[in-house]
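Expect sequence, tokenised fold; for instance:
***
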Amino acid sequence: MKFFVCVALLAVVPAVFGVNNWSYHTQETWPLISGSQCNGNSQSPININSSIATTTDLGSFVLDGYTDENTNMDLVNNGNKIVIQFHDDVEDLYKLSGGGLPTTYTATHIHFHWGSMNSGGSEHQIDSTPYPAELHVAHYDKSKYADLTAAVTSMQWDAATILGAFIEVGEHNTAFDPFLSHISQIANYSSGVTSLGQGNLPSFPIRSVLPSDLSKFYRYNGSKAVPDCNEAIIWTIFTDTISISQAQLDIFRTVYGEHADAQGNYEVVDNYRYLQPLNGRTVYYSRPTPESTDGGAVTISPMRALFIVALTICMLFNRF
């Protein structure tokens, strides 16, 4: 009897404390958090089955400001992952459109997920194959919402979008040096020093940390992959990967977070959500058609524009 009482009390704890008190170690309790939608039908991440993805050409992405450098970013240990935060004046530099997206989005931050071993760590998988880590660039529709939080809590399917890329082990990647070299300063969450400070992160263009080839990607409608799991995200997962060295990957594994695992360890590893069911959603695979290969210039024919509009409408109705 006492055992069942304890279980009941443990189940209530997340609901009492709300969405700010969650852990990757206790994902089974996420649906119990007050206001959580973590049991929804359009959740993320997913396993992408390439054999059943619908092949199409959504066109090229337009990255406005992604090659610019700035000195007003921050490096943050938020207790469960490493975040490169863009502040308001920096956000206006980074605009994303094209690639079949219904509007223009503003980037707010980059964050990372990684595993305790190289055999896993990414949130998404392709054909049941995980990668050691995954990078996300989060964006929202600034024309409609005050910030990313307001966007995702709106529960509108097109309120926000995330660019996702798999990270694998290869050669040393100098593009990662500006922030990896400073992780040691914020590695211990319990120290109270969890932020490098706005403007103290060496400048770098965010395009440099993305895959070289952005022309081929998967697209689906999903959710935030942390509580409260709002279903308001258009996901893009690139097929081209990012390579970093083993030593660089191991730097992520030196981070200590807010919550301990069952053994009392505070290392931030395996900070990814379990795979979620597709529940009948359509996953699109976009690749350039021969006539669209033009050296990277963005050209959209009237027929393609009409197709993209129709596809966007189909994605909307696919949610219901």
Observations:
- The chain has two domains: 1-36, 40-317.
- The CA atoms of residues 74 and 198 lie 5 Å apart.
- Helices lie at 2-17, 88-91, 148-153, 177-180, 246-252, 302-317.
